[in-house]
Design goal:
119 residues; alpha/beta; five-stranded parallel sheet; 5 strands; 23% helix; 18% strand; Sulphur_relay_TusC/DsrF; EC 2.8.1.-
Length: 119
């Protein structure tokens, strides 16, 4: 069975990439048992717990990350370098439990997946 990685690289608001990525994860979760989520660059902002999308009249899909547990999707990784570059805490609570990895370790883990889908 193919291991599928979803790479989130865009901020949560301003485009539909985050929502589309989450939809793709959920659809793939019904078909595959080995899925990993990776958050790098502006994608680390997807995991901020205190987002208020209604303030900018954006659709709130962030809470949907909570249903990933129902699909047994629990391999989630976030780039420490990306967090620090955006002034984010390495230890802050996030909308999704994710292991914080240095960039080199994250790349190594990502390389172990057969397919990588970027959003």
């Amino acid at each position: 069975m193919n291991r599928v990685a979803f790479l989130f690289t865009q901020a949560p608001h301003g485009s539909s990439a985050g929502r589309e990525g989450l939809d793709a994860v959920l659809a793939t979760g019904a078909l595959s048992e080995d899925i990993g989520l990776f958050f790098i660059g502006d994608g680390v902002l997807q995991l901020n717990r205190d987002q208020q999308p209604e303030q900018i009249l954006a659709r709130n899909y962030i809470a949907t990350f909570g249903v990933l547990e129902l699909y047994d999707i629990d391999q989630c990784f976030v780039c420490a370098d990306s967090l620090l570059a955006r002034g984010q805490s390495l230890t802050a609570e996030r909308v999704l439990a994710a292991e914080v990895l240095e960039a080199a370790s994250l790349r190594e883990k990502l390389a172990s997946y057969h397919r990588v889908i970027r959003f």
